Predict the structure.
Amino acid sequence: MSPISIVLIGFAMSTDAFAAAIGKGAAMRRPVFRDALRAGLIFGVIEAITPVVGWLLGRVALQYVEAFDHWIAFGLLGALGLHMIYNGLRPDDGADDEDTAQHHGFWKLALTGFATSIDAMAVGIGLAFMDVHIGVVAAVIGLCTLVMVTAGIMLGRVLGGMVGKRAEIVGGVILMAIGATILYEHLHGVA
């Protein structure tokens, strides 16, 4: 997998966390950099761990699915991409109107971070079928998420709902494109 693909996966995996961070930043009265960095660290660490867990699960199954692993990676990335696009197009339900003091505690941030990282676990499963160093991919995903969430919290006050959903749509398109590239490379013997 090329370094560009790894960085694109990192940013694609962080777009849903970015969208959540914009919402959290918009809900905070005056987000300060320290709070944004704290949220970025929580999201980034969780987002870096989940693809490793998925990769380990995928490695267990590798011997059984090696002949069609590229189809699995294509299917997982495509399904995740479609899901992200669907979430980006779906109207908000207004659930983020809670009390801001309760909305930004450690456990709420960790739970939100885990919820936005499930797709990274599925990507880890797909990457188990490829010749890729999962530590590098996980670190890139975690770092991209740290940066995107920190920026999202700080931008949330200004941007609010204007950008959040569009970021998820772009992330979904990127995942689908990477899945299609993996399938093409495997079917046509491109290394």
Summary: Confidence is low (pLDDT under 50) at residues 96-103. The CA atoms of residues 1 and 74 lie 14 Å apart.
